[in-house]
Amino acid sequence: MAYSAPAKDTFTGIFPAFAAVSDEAYTFWSGQAVLVTEPLQDCLGARMDLATMRATAHYLTQQGIGTGTEAQMAAQGASGFKRLKSGTLEIERGDSPAAANMGDWGTTSYGQQLYPMLKACVGGPRVSGTGCVVDGNGFNGFAGVLPPWVR
């Protein structure tokens, strides 16, 4: 059975900053969120709705939709600012290494809250072949012991 995002009323009840979101925008961006969360449904379990709503809020914020500061800045094209100056006021956003490691999800607070949920479902060891080691014992890890003429 295919998963569908929570109703707009449920979403705006949990995330009131998006109370004025249009039906069309909610339908589209929640559909995009489902594309991310649905493959992880077995892992997310009871947190599936929360993950989908956080992804939806992330996408809406990036589009400048919502009443939060992040959304307002995105609407004005200033979401990725490094330094803003207006008169005597200067604001600079430091680069957060943790947020940078989250890729696109690190660009909003909603994405930063979602990222650990997604990572827990897709994390694991990454294995890559390195070839044979010079002066090694001749074992390459894949095909067994290498013949002497290859060493």
Automatic annotation (TrEMBL):
<dbReference type="InterPro" id="IPR025127">
    <property type="entry name" value="DUF4054"/>
</dbReference>
<protein>
    <submittedName>
        <fullName>DUF4054 domain-containing protein</fullName>
    </submittedName>
</protein>
<dbReference type="Pfam" id="PF13262">
    <property type="entry name" value="DUF4054"/>
</dbReference>
